[in-house]
Structure to design on (579 residues):
């Protein structure tokens, strides 16, 4: 049972549209975010085919995914938890329309930590047939080999609002998240429409052995009427699965007469060990797995309160006071059908004596040295202070030589630890933060609202992240410059157009790369059959008309040096023909 929930699924597998449907709008929440992982989601939403590591490196494919999905995706992440990419690509700047950071100005140490996606899908043949897909997980939008949990619920979106307390709670949670974020008004409207549609879902379907569900959101100090944690997470029997743990929180809210804990061994103090072992067992990942970065990252709580009150909670919340009292978190409650306790059955998926395939083993004694709590380094705190200043902003100025300057300012002049900042597209320009940083000589395609911030601890450990800063004066043709840095000529444009009109762009890109390696194919626009392109456009327009409009938006950002005159004429004829 647990194995079904802890499947080794990439987010992309579940984010891809249901067969016969296409993604209409999607909203995600995550603690940490990697640009490459987010691009996997973009590719999945566009149904671009099977994806591997090489495909993610193709700027043409990344651009195609962004064009297709920039208007129909939003993701919220924790302020300061966007990873600095190993290779910074120009197309990443186009993700400004999709990524929004969340933080609590009253408590900058509180983390925005939910992991979920809410996706509206529309039937390809019937626009009135709409699905709502909810994915709840412990996995961040970042590549990881850790052991996570994930669940997916799907429901039909009807025409009328339903009075359903748990659905209203989810809608309220999403709407309140907006108020803690730096989201634009335009995107906020889209998210509110999506959230409102939750109440048009009569019910989400759940699979056996479950019969019902509920939602448990936590958002800083906001109130959702959930009651006391110990009233719903403590039972006669329970299994706690959490990588990070807090002895006081567990003792006060979770501990009972029959309790087992699955966690990371470095967080099991002697006191906690001797409290739990008489009541059950403590299990940890095998050393061989943990040493390879495959430790437990799932957060699940199996709670038995009787045959009619048997639940599994899963999501983002660790078994700590910080998670339930300060952070933003989300748990999905799944209710078991009437019956006996699943305690032993559930535990076997983690450890079974004599089973060589078990990935976990009992912890027979605590380590001599453990980490009782996560301690913030001065460097991390200094970065938080700098990036969470409420008046942090940037302004762009264009010069006569067509170069640009960016000035970043805030009222915070000094931090406890030195902090450095640089434009994401120009890491070499880093400056120490002293309340003002000016960057000169940037090209238009190097302008971005993303900046790299870093600081170093006294022990020499470097902390770094990408942050988004509200920026005034962004040129209207910045996106055009990025497009043209990838589509350098008419041949590139026509190849890219074929990619946009293909049913399986990933496979087409792979085929073209293979042809290039074999020396097959020309490097000019001659030989392109515009009649075939016209036919492909007709086919696409019949299934997904918005994709044709996306081509128009792309044309608006390019000029005659890139777009063949013949195609521009054909596109206008096509629009007139389908009106």
């Amino acid at each position: 049972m647990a194995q079904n929930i802890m499947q080794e699924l990439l987010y992309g597998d579940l984010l891809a549209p249901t067969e016969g449907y296409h993604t209409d709008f999607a909203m995600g929440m995550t603690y940490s975010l990697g640009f490459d992982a987010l691009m996997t989601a973009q590719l999945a939403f566009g149904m671009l085919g099977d994806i591997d590591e090489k495909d993610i490196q193709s700027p043409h494919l990344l651009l195609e995914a962004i064009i297709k999905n920039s208007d129909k995706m939003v993701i919220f992440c924790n302020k300061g938890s966007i990873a600095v990419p190993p290779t910074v690509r120009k197309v990443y700047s186009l993700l400004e329309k999709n990524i929004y950071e969340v933080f609590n100005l009253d408590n900058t140490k509180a983390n925005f930590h939910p992991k979920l996606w809410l996706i509206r899908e529309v039937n390809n043949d019937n626009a009135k047939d709409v699905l709502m897909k909810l994915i709840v997980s412990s996995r961040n939008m970042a590549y990881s080999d850790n052991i996570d949990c994930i669940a997916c619920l799907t429901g039909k979106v009807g025409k009328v609002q339903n009075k359903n307390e748990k659905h209203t709670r989810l809608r309220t949670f999403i709407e309140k998240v907006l108020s803690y974020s730096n989201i634009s008004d335009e995107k906020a409207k889209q998210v509110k429409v999506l959230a409102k549609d939750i109440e048009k879902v009569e019910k989400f379907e759940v699979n056996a052995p479950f019969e019902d569900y509920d939602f448990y959101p936590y958002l800083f100090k906001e109130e959702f009427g959930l009651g006391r944690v110990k009233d719903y997470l403590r039972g006669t029997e329970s299994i706690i699965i959490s990588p990070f743990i807090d002895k006081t929180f567990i003792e006060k809210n979770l501990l009972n007469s029959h309790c087992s804990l699955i966690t990371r061994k470095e967080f099991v103090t002697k006191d906690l060990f001797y409290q739990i072992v008489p009541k059950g067992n403590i299990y940890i990942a095998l050393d061989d797995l943990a040493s390879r970065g495959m430790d437990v990252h799932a957060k699940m709580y199996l709670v038995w309160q009787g045959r009619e009150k048997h639940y599994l909670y899963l999501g983002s919340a660790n078994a700590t006071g910080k998670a339930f009292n300060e952070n933003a978190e989300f748990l999905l409650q799944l209710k078991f059908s009437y019956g006996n306790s699943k305690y032993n059955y559930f535990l076997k998926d983690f450890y079974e004596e004599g089973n060589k395939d078990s990935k976990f083993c009992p912890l027979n004694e605590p380590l001599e040295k453990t980490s009782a709590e996560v301690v913030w380094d001065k460097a991390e705190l200094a970065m938080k202070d700098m990036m969470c200043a409420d008046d942090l902003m940037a302004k762009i100025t264009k010069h006569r030589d067509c170069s640009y300057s960016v000035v970043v300012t805030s009222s915070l002049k000094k931090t406890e630890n030195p902090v450095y900042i640089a434009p994401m597209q120009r890491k070499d320009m880093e400056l120490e933060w002293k309340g003002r940083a000016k960057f000169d000589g940037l090209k238009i395609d190097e302008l971005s609202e993303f900046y790299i911030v870093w600081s170093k601890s006294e022990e020499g450990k470097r902390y770094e992240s990408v942050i988004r800063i509200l920026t005034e004066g962004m040129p209207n043709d910045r996106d055009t410059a990025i497009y043209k840095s990838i589509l350098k000529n008419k041949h590139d444009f026509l190849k890219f157009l074929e990619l946009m009109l293909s049913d399986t762009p990933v496979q087409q890109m792979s085929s073209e790369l293979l042809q290039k390696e074999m020396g097959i194919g020309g490097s000019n626009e001659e030989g392109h059959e515009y009649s075939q392109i016209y036919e492909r456009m007709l086919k696409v327009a019949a299934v997904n008309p918005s994709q044709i409009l996306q081509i128009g938006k792309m044309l608006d950002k390019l000029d005659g040096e890139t777009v063949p005159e013949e195609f521009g004429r054909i596109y206008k004829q096509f629009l007139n023909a389908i009106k």
Summary: The first strand starts at residue 21 and ends at 29. The chain is about 30% helix and 25% strand. Residues 506-525 have pLDDT under 50 and may be disordered. The radius of gyration is 26 Å.
